[in-house]
Amino acid sequence: VRIKSDRMQYYPESEIAKYSGHVDGKIERTRAYEQPVFFKTNLFKFSMLEKKASLDGDVLIKKQGISATSLRGEMFLENYNKKLKYFALYDDVIVKETVQLSGKSSFMRKAYSEKLEGYMSEGYYVLLGYPKVYQRDDVLKGNVIILRENNATIEVDDANTNFKLEQ
Hints:
Elements: E1 2-4, E2 7-11, E3 16-27, E4 37-47, E5 52-63, E6 66-77, E7 84-99, E8 107-119, E9 124-128, E10 132-135, E11 138-141, E12 144-148, E13 154-157, E14 160-162
Antiparallel strand pairs: 1-3, 2-3, 3-4, 4-5, 5-6, 6-7, 7-8, 8-9, 8-10, 9-12, 10-11, 11-14, 12-13
């Protein structure tokens, strides 16, 4: 984990670090073929004991062709190798993804929700809280929407959908 910021405070007894002011970070994966995860925020608080980070203010998380923004967020690291296990974003979540299909042209997918849960090792993202996804000419709405990395297929629970079929 690499972090740059304007200010940093560290509390050795509780093993808590606070980074504030233009926080810019990168979580590098242990395997060379795994893509790094980049993040930006105004305030980043990390607890070494809990392996949990909280992000507050203008949060941005990027990985490969996907970027997600929100007002607040949390990140959870695995204990044994300090890699990103799970993250959650809250309040006015916007997800933008360039989906590159094999042998076909790419397209941009946009999604909006109140909460986003990202599972890095499985490569999927769960949108909760009135999610809405715009993909090509389609608009998908439901209670829970699951997006998979670089995959045009979307799982929708309790759907309210408008889409056009190609012939």
